[in-house]
Design a protein that fits this description.
By secondary structure, this protein is α+β, with helices and mostly antiparallel strands. The protein is built from 14 helices and 11 strands. It has a 5-stranded antiparallel β-sheet.
């Protein structure tokens, strides 16, 4: 899943992301990482440093140089928050079950999708002969912050990718990001994250089961009772929608805001104890999670179905779906819809474009 919001204030953004940089245990700080070719251009790698993070939100380099002309920390829009959230079964196994390979799969998927988004959409607006054009740059500066719980204090593995509002042109000058396409292609980019995640999990011996025609999935044969137990936020939103009698994505987004509790600062060890108790309430245990992980190690890498066959099935499903929704549609719409019909990695090979679409 991918959610996006535009950051309004550098100071607020800085306080939020630093204060919520949770601890994985009593000693080690939560996982952070610089991502993007723009970060490399600025010499940024490894964990995110607080001072560099604050300067970049204000449109300055880590050394204090003004990168965006006219940026004084007040009128400059800091950037965008792209938050990638793992499926619930993945969150439970990775966080509660302390499965490092599952956490690594999520981190790798986030890196891959940021690279994909950067390559496809990184751009700025340029005025040429009086006309505004969108010029591609191929680089972003991204600070990734990994969090482990939801506002309902359920295990919720998710990464805030703070995309700074600056990108470098070929001549070395920095400009503000053209962000429209981040929103225009939000669903597609969320699907792409899930494709990468599914592929990484399968390489580690975990089988996955698609749960909708929008590319959502869960781990195969994972206890549904655990998924329901640790999905309190979803239940809160569903109850709110039933209460007001509305449905759909926009209504769900409003219900999310209406029911969202304040974020609570908690000790990870206390939270882990709470989760262990909830496991017991469901008739499960840490041992069950560890056995589940052990089976994946014994199974070894799982080969994905033939990409061409997967692509053909996705195209067929997309045509059926679009035909029910509208009378006329073009090839790009078919391809975009097909990408959401599968979690298999046929998208990377661009095989969808090679499949003949029959009239």
């Amino acid at each position: 899943m991918l959610s996006i919001c535009t950051l309004k204030s550098a100071s607020q953004a800085s306080q939020y992301y630093q204060s919520e940089n949770y601890y994985s245990n009593n000693e080690e700080p939560g996982y952070t990482q610089w991502l993007g070719k723009g970060s490399e251009k600025l010499g940024l790698e490894g964990p995110v440093g607080e001072q560099a993070f604050k300067k970049l939100l204000d449109g300055h380099s880590p050394t204090g140089e003004k990168l965006i002309q006219g940026s004084n920390g007040k009128g400059h829009r800091p950037g965008y928050d792209l938050t990638f959230s793992a499926p619930k079964s993945v969150s439970i196994l990775g966080i509660v079950g302390n499965d490092k390979q599952v956490i690594d799969a999520h981190r790798t998927a986030v890196k891959k999708v940021i690279t994909s988004i950067e390559s496809e959409f990184a751009a700025y607006r340029a005025k040429i002969k009086g006309l505004m054009n969108v010029e591609k740059t191929g680089n972003y500066v991204v600070a990734a912050f990994e969090h482990i719980d939801s506002r309902a204090l359920d295990p919720n593995l998710h990464t805030h990718c703070v995309l700074m509002n600056l990108t470098q042109r070929e001549d070395g000058a920095w400009r503000t990001v053209f962000g429209d396409d981040l929103y225009n292609h939000k669903l597609l980019n969320g699907m792409q994250y899930r494709v990468f995640l599914a592929e990484e999990l399968m390489q580690k011996g975990f089988n996955v089961v698609q749960t909708s025609n929008k590319g959502t999935f869960e781990l195969e044969n994972f206890d549904k009772g655990l998924i329901d137990q640790f999905s309190k936020r979803r239940l809160q939103i569903t109850d709110k929608l039933q209460e007001v009698g509305f449905s759909g994505g926009k209504a769900a987004a409003i219900a999310n805001l209406d029911t969202r509790p304040d974020k609570k600062a908690v000790n990870f060890n206390n939270l882990k104890e709470k989760w262990v108790e909830e496991l017991k309430e469901c008739g499960s245990s840490i041992e069950w999670l560890k056995d589940y992980s052990k089976l994946s190690l014994e199974r070894g890498p799982i080969l994905a179905p033939d990409p061409k066959i997967t692509a053909e099935k996705a195209i067929s499903a997309a045509l059926g779906h679009l035909s029910e929704q509208q009378a006329v549609f073009n090839l790009n719409q078919v391809i975009k819809t097909a990408k959401g019909m599968t979690i298999m990695p046929c998208v990377e090979a661009d095989l969808l474009k090679d499949i003949e679409v029959k009239e």
